[in-house]
Amino acid sequence: MMSSPKLQTQVPTRQPPNDGVREFEFTDRDFEAVRKLIYQRAGISLSPQKMDMVYSRLARRLRATGTRRFEDYLALLGNGSATEWEAFTNALTTNLTSFFREQHHFPILAEHLAARRGRQLVIWCCAASTGEEPYSLAMTAVETFGSFDAPVSILATDVDTNVLRKGEAGIYPAERVERLSAERVRRFFLRGGGSQDGQVRVRPELQRMVSFRPLNLLEPAWTVRGPLDAIFCRNVMIYFDKPTQAGILRRFAPLLRPDGLLFVGHSESLFHAADTFHLRGKTVYERVLPKGREGD
Questions:
Q1: Pairing verdict, β 121-125 and 152-158
Q2: Dihedral sign, Cα of residue 17, residue 19, residue 22, residue 27
Q3: Sheet of strand 189-191, all strands in order from the earlier edge strand to the far edge
Q4: Which of 56, 54, 49, 71 is nearest to 23 (CA)?
């Protein structure tokens, strides 16, 4: 179990203006309390510059719960409401995604899968958001093996339960697939008609390759079991401080096969975890194996 690291950002000292525009008073003390709670709950380190964003997102929860002050809302969380804790976490989670985002990773994955024909392959997408990334992994697998019966299963997890439900449904506005080739759209999606005009749905054959499950990377016990052939943890580490990152990476390593790959986001570097992972290519990492296992 990883230890609970300390917040690295400084407590904001500026009192935000309250010019009557805001519906609820939101003080530095309120913001600091929110920062501590989301850090303890999900490991997210909010900078002082996120104060307005936090107010905007949590003001909706005050309205929904009928509370009039942030102090009262935080007290509600303190009473241990599992439903509201889930809503609080969902509200403060950022979900920016698209199909085949950071395109350079997918040919590497395709080559990795093709070289391991003959066994069942398992990929963990640990920040699945609304599903575009795990479905992109599934499309890559189908294209690599030339069949929807590809020997690949994908576990898609996220701390935000709202986006997981959207991913599991597999229904998207048609503009979300506009950048995909016509061949991919035809092969992997169904276009809606009537009341669903302007929407597309992931084909059931592709959906069967992906299973969605809620998971918080800060939980002391994960429901994920190895061995895994690849882990996609892209644009997640940027929300954690270095000690939290290092703790998560140490837990990733034993879940991967000795030849497994870890894919991270374009702005993320694991130089501080050189004892756990070493760079193979552009934001693609391999495990550092114990001495004597380098040839496994």
A1: parallel
A2: positive
A3: 171-173, 199-202, 189-191
A4: 56
Is there a shared CATH topology between the 1-92 domain and the 105-171+202-287 domain?
A: no
What's the CA gap between 235 and 12, in Å, rounded?
25
Classify 184 in phi/psi space as left (phi over 0), alpha (psi -120 to 50) or beta.
Answer: alpha
| 8 Å CB contact between 280 and 262 | no
- Does 227 sit behind a cis peptide bond, omega within 30 degrees of 0 on the bond before it? yes
> Tens of pLDDT along 161-213?
989 999 999 999 999 999 999 999 999 999 987 778 889 999 999 999 999 99
Note the pLDDT tens digit of each residue in 210-226: 999 999 998 999 999 99
- The CATH architecture that domain 105-171+202-287 belongs to is 3-Layer(aba) Sandwich (3.40)
Signed CA dihedral, 233, 239, 244, 245: sign only: positive
Sign of the CA dihedral running 16, 94, 60, 81: negative
Among this protein's residues, is 22 annotated catalytic? no
158 is known as an active-site residue: yes
Q: Are 97 and 129 in contact (CB under 8 A)?
A: yes
Q: Residue 153: CB partners within 8 Å, gap ≥ 6?
A: 120, 121, 122, 123, 209, 211
Q: Which one of the listed residues 22, 28, 41, 57 is annotated catalytic?
A: 57
Residue with tokens 């495990």: 287
Set 158, 160, 234, 287: catalytic member? 158
| Fold held by 1-92 | Chemotaxis Receptor Methyltransferase Cher; domain 1 (1.10.155)
Domain ranges of the chain: 1-92, 105-171+202-287
HSE-CB of 247 using CA atoms within 13 angstroms: 16
